[in-house]
Structures are given as structure tokens and as C-alpha cells.
Amino acid sequence: MPSLVKTCGRFYGRAPAGAGLGLTSCKLCAMVRVGPILLLILLSACSQAGDPGPSEGDSSGTPEPRDLRVEHVAAGSPGEGPERPRVVLAPSAEALSEDLGAEIRGSGGGTYLLVYRGERPTGGYSVGVAGARSEGERVTVRVSLEGPPPDAMVTQTLTYPYEISVLRGVEPGGRSFSFVDGGGEELEWPVRRVGG
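and the corresponding C-alpha cells:
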């Protein structure tokens, strides 16, 4: 008959006939150790299930501010474009394509933004959507404006930087949009809505 080995208060191997209570307490000990871990996993999953909505004490009904996911569709710096900075908002890639007369690759729902930086004296300039935040019916879009380093060798021609991006999780209808630079200063760029 194989011998029973007892290590750290636990039995390993085949238990003797009189060890029934010991095995039961060992199983109980294991359940006591594993039980809280399973409870924590369950509670963690429940807390990540989603926002239950406004609590009873919150009578305002306004949603909490949240960061929006930004996806970049296209960017460039062609040799022609608008002289002054501006923004075009559209509810879909199709609406933006129709307004521009060019094919814009669609990638699902959201607000499509076309951000023009305007005429620049040389190459090396860029514009981009760095982030966006929704607070109630207001959407604030952070725009990055980059220029060439002072000692950079750049194309000596007029350029017109632009970027097309999609803000996921927000539709343009019924919302006000503001645009700020990296320092939080509001950009007084005209905004034109197309497609609805």
C-alpha cells in the first residue's frame, strides 16, 4: 500500500481510512481560499459591465464628459486648397465625398471632420486631430498644428495641409463643436456642416 505523505498540513497520496474528516476540512480550506478569489472576479466583471445610467441622486440627466476615439482617415499637403483654415463636418464619408467631389474611404459611423490649415509658405507644415472630448451637447476637438524646424530643408512652394478624421461614438446633429490648439486656445476657424 502506498504511503501517505503529509506536507504543510495537507495530505498527498491516498488517505488512510480514518482521514475522512481531514479530507473534508482540506476541501473546506481550499474552498475558503478559492472562494474570495472567485467572488472578486465576479465583482470585477460586474463593475466593468457598463454604466448603469444616472443614479437616483443625479437629477440633471446630463452624461459625464468622455473622451472620444479619433481615427485618422487621410492627410496630406497638396499644392492647392483653401487659403484660410477651416473645418468641414459631415455625418458620413458619403456626405463628405459628395461635398468634396472626391472619394473618401468610409469606415463606419461617427462624425467625419475635414480640417484645413490653410495656405502655408513652404512644405513641412501639418495639421491633425489630436483628440476630442464630449461634454453634454458640446464637443471640443484638439487640433495639432506643426511647422518645420527653423533649420529644416523644405519644399519651396505653397502647401495646404489637411487631415480627414472620424470621431467615433458621436453624431454631429444637435451638437456644437469647438476647436482648440495644443495649448487649449480656441481656434476661431469657420465650421461648415454638410450632409444634414
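(Above: one complete record from the training split.) The two ends are 84 Å apart (CA to CA).
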